[in-house]
Amino acid sequence: MTSLKKEFPILSSFTYLNTPFTGVLCSSVQSKIHKLEEDYRLRGSLFSDAYEDSIVEDTKLLIAEIYNAEFDCIGLLNNFSSGINLILNDLPDQSKVVLLAQDYPSVNLPVKSRNFEVFEVDINLKLYENLKQTFTEVKPDFFIFSMTQYISGLQLDLKALEKLKDEFPGISFIADATQYCGSEAFDFSNSPFDVFGTSGYKWLNAGLGNAFFLLKPGFLEKHRFRSLGSNSLTSKPDGKPRAVGFLESGHFDVIAVARLQFALEFHYKTLGIDFIESRIKSLSKLAKSEFFKRNLLDTEVIDKQAHQNIFSLKGEESDIDKLKQKGILSAFRGGRIRVGFQYFNTEKDLESLLNALEELQ
């Protein structure tokens, strides 16, 4: 049995509820990365010759297996924001785009900065009804959104999104999954999403500098993406552009890609998504119940029955430092205290948080 406290030493010093801000690199992954970095330091180009192609290919094969995605439709990048901007660059001018009004700035800002016709839907308890009404009235080309909201922690309901996609198949669904990916099992090919992108540094605990995008073949065929570099080609220097070459125009950060590969192996192979999903959902359900009892949640946004593992609690910005002094790490977002429960968190962590919040009142 894997010892999570050995894998994540910070757990011995803090109650770590700040995965929505940044995940934590586990010891097993760091050990493997250290060996690669030392090999690169000692061998230079010999290291690149030996590992670059195989690490990229192995990582994409692993992603394809885990998320049921097509190998040739997977793009590796350094972060989600770079990828979404490359996609938006070549979507048609005057496209109609629906956004969620309170969504993550890295989702909404690049859309609003371009020549699109933008329509925003407020996040509230009638979200799916409002989306359906907007889709019917506006007839948009794209719906671009975060699967899990970064402030409220609201996780959009996959079945509700599937129903909307069935009713409006002509709308391309483009999802930011950075606050979602890794928290539960996910099947891309059978999902309502045309594009699914995520950075690796949050719930996958893959560190900074890596991200991946999954795209449906139909989406790639429908649009002409023009960003190119020699790395975009099937072979250098005169091969044909690859389907996702526009996302990979420059060289890969091989160490960052390897860190993603090793983190995915630890997440899905060593621990297993069934274990992870069960731990997160069980603790999050208990936490949500306790937060509702204490009137800490925004009831205009949060459905009591819906699952979420990120929570936005009543509090002041000064409370973040006070919680840190009590050994609890969290963040202040949207005028509230944000906490998130990862698979390494326990009921004792929840109890520590609840006791600390009571002392702050």
From TrEMBL:
MF term (GO), any: transaminase activity
InterPro entries: Aminotrans_V_dom, PyrdxlP-dep_Trfase, PyrdxlP-dep_Trfase_major, PyrdxlP-dep_Trfase_small
Domain of life, per lineage: Bacteria
Domain Aminotransferase class V: 54-315
Keywords: Aminotransferase, Pyridoxal phosphate, Transferase
Keyword flag Transferase: yes
Pfam families named in the record: Aminotran_5 (PF00266)
Protein name as it appears in the record: Aminotransferase class V-fold PLP-dependent enzyme
Species the sequence originates in: Psychroflexus aurantiacus
